[in-house]
Amino acid sequence: MCNVKNVLLVGVGGQGIILASKVLSSGLIDSGYDVKMSEVHGMAQRGGSVTTQVRYGEKVYSPIIGKGQADIIVAFERVEALRWLEYLKPGGKIVINDYAIPSATVLSGKEAYPENIIEKMEAKYEDITVIDAANEAIALGNIKAQNIIMLGGLIKSLGIEEINWDKALKDNVKEKFVELNMKAVKKGLESGVKEKAL
């Protein structure tokens, strides 16, 4: 079982997390891995929490990742990173989108959006990659490409760049968006290269 990798993707409804997970799973399956994926939508339609769990390796028996077991957490939104940190295993990796989506309670003024989330996480965790996926996606011409930029950062962090991700995109994305998403993966791979300054 030690060869199984546990990937937890977390964010907010409408961020394209499930699509990113499907592309990831598709690429891994095509490369011969056994893959199990589970989705938890929550209040996805209303900007609530969405998570997907992807486990891959030679043989995977369950799609569920327990607390303290995730090799990597990919957070598409800052607060969601905080919400799911207890699932990260010691020495695990974090890929975080430097992006805020205020919840209904924040928007109503009932609570404040937490400050300095990324700085606090960088102080506590060694292996953290921060990606400004929103601005990178806007530069590509479509803010919705954030999810695939984050997927690129995940691919880089996992060291699975050799997989045919163009094929995985073609198999899962509408034809008119394939070229944009290919550029987004490349942008994410480049973003994932950055080392944290000492």
UniProtKB/TrEMBL annotation:
It comes from the Bacteria. SUPFAM superfamilies: Pyruvate-ferredoxin oxidoreductase, PFOR, domain III. Keywords: Oxidoreductase. Residues 13-190 form the Pyruvate/ketoisovalerate oxidoreductase catalytic domain. This is Indolepyruvate oxidoreductase subunit beta. The lineage of its organism: Bacteria, Bacillati, Bacillota, Clostridia, Peptostreptococcales.
